TrEMBL record:
Catalyzes the attachment of aspartate to tRNA(Asp) in a two-step reaction: aspartate is first activated by ATP to form Asp-AMP and then transferred to the acceptor end of tRNA(Asp). Belongs to the class-II aminoacyl-tRNA synthetase family. Type 1 subfamily. GO terms for molecular function: aspartate-tRNA ligase activity; ATP binding. PANTHER family: ASPARTATE--TRNA LIGASE, MITOCHONDRIAL, ASPARTYL/LYSYL-TRNA SYNTHETASE. This is Aspartate--tRNA ligase, mitochondrial. It is an enzyme of class 6 (ligase). The keyword Secreted does not apply. It comes from Heterocephalus glaber. Homodimer. GO terms for biological process: aspartyl-tRNA aminoacylation. Residues 109-540 form the Aminoacyl-transfer RNA synthetases class-II family profile domain. The gene is Dars2.
Amino acid sequence: MFLVLRDCHGLVQVIIPQDESAASVKKILCEAPLESVVRISGAVISRPPGQENPKMPTGEIEIKVKTAELLNSCKKLPFEIKDFVKKTEALRLQYRYLDLRSVQMQYNLRLRSQMVMKMREYLCNLHGFVDVETPTLFKRTPGGAREFLVPSREPGKFYSLPQSPQQFKQLLMVGGLDRYFQVARCYRDEGSRPDRQPEFTQIDIEMSFVDQTGIQSLIEGLLQYSWPSDRDPVVIPFPSMTFAEALATYGTDKPDTRFGMKIIDISDVFRNTKSEFLQDALRKPQGTVKAMCVREGAKYLKRKDIESIRKCATDHFNQEVLPVFLKANSNWNSPAAKFIVEEQRLELTRIMETREEDMVLLTAGEHKKACSLLGKLRLECAHLLEGRGVVLRDPTCFSFLWVVDFPLFLPKEGNPRELESAHHPFTAPHPSDGHLLYTAPEKVRSQHYDLVLNGNEIGGGSIRIHDAELQGYILSTLLKEDATLLSHLLQALDYGAPPHGGIALGLDRLMCLVTGAPSIRDVIAFPKSFQGRDLMSNVPDSVPSEELKPYHIQVSWPTDSEAEKRKESFTPSRKLRVLSSVLHQC
């Protein structure tokens, strides 16, 4: 008789001798339920010839057991601890301590630990960085994501959980710690988003007397040094692309460069077109005609796929997209065929480099909107083609890209006449655009840079503003923010702040891509659910009113009419939020 034991290092086969002396051992081990904890002792022996298991690292040996002890029996499991057994994510999160026993979760968390250790070694031992812990209780930061509030015992006074250590790491530069890093816990109250967690971890880095190239070289070396040995090595330097180029070519600021389907401007082809649709678009400011070639789209995509693509364009962008097919007989089978003359057809074929059975998606409109539309459809087409067996996005390929020269400001949502920071208000303007701050701030580029991996933003940073006067002008005059909230930072910048810059890598998302996990929750030991709840401990939870008194807080429950009104505007998955308490100062 044999059974398999598992510990943190793997599996080993145990043989129970078939004699009377092993009767007690046999009884203990055979009656112990699956996943029980046992201690055994015995002799390590070679397996009989022909019984080796090459699929197991310990497949050439087994343990001939002498004694056995049941340390703790396991009750009936809610699910089997096997990776191939299908389990709902809610059940996995409810019994997370059991889910952590799976081979995949063990691998993910151990690889995460190994990579973080290598990063510490690279930064601290090889490059002289100082690991500094920054406070978790802080104050509200103007702009950026919504922050979690923490009540204090002073009436009407709250702490905020920092969405990043941004201000602290800049203050450390003022304090003379010229190379800072931290494995930082960050908090953002962003609601239900599948690719986000309310609490997350980032590799936070800041340096004095550095430029953009210096930061990028450091990060490239960091990833190359810490990269898992069982993956293809990281090749540096990473390619770079401006924000404008990324938008014009891929329709997004985080392009997946593992496959083609680039966007091409074909406005010149249709300057003299008789199509009112195209002429109206070209007459408008920033008007353009864009196209994208889907290789073998006519071969693999079906009519329902084409309708889905067109519906996606209408639903998300309120814009028309025209599919164009080039068949072997050179006829156009498309709504666009009626306004494309032979000369335009030949020119379009030349520019797009189309072949038989390719499909061209054509749209017209304002530059940014048209590019964004085709950028979304590019990913949608890749998904559809991969569903038909076409390999476009190799999961074993890691395609890094720097995106640079972002705009410093964007029109504020809801009030386009006002500006808001494209990233955060501490980002320095591009050296070539400094004069535009006072005449045309909407045209100013920033010294911000994002690191993209396979279409996912895994890091972002910038060269910071180290001049108090400039920082105050941007906050008060351009962004119309209350600069008193940052008086401590503005004051610090006046005391000889060195030029500095930094970056933060999203550790959770990076590990998700490295391990090939379907969700960032699969690389975090105890994550929150899609709705931001901990299903294992059932939090957030209610608090007795007696415990709220020292914080001068009471709960105001919504009336039935308010609850019903909210219920109409909430999706079923968010209805629980209707009952969330609203905090009011007494």
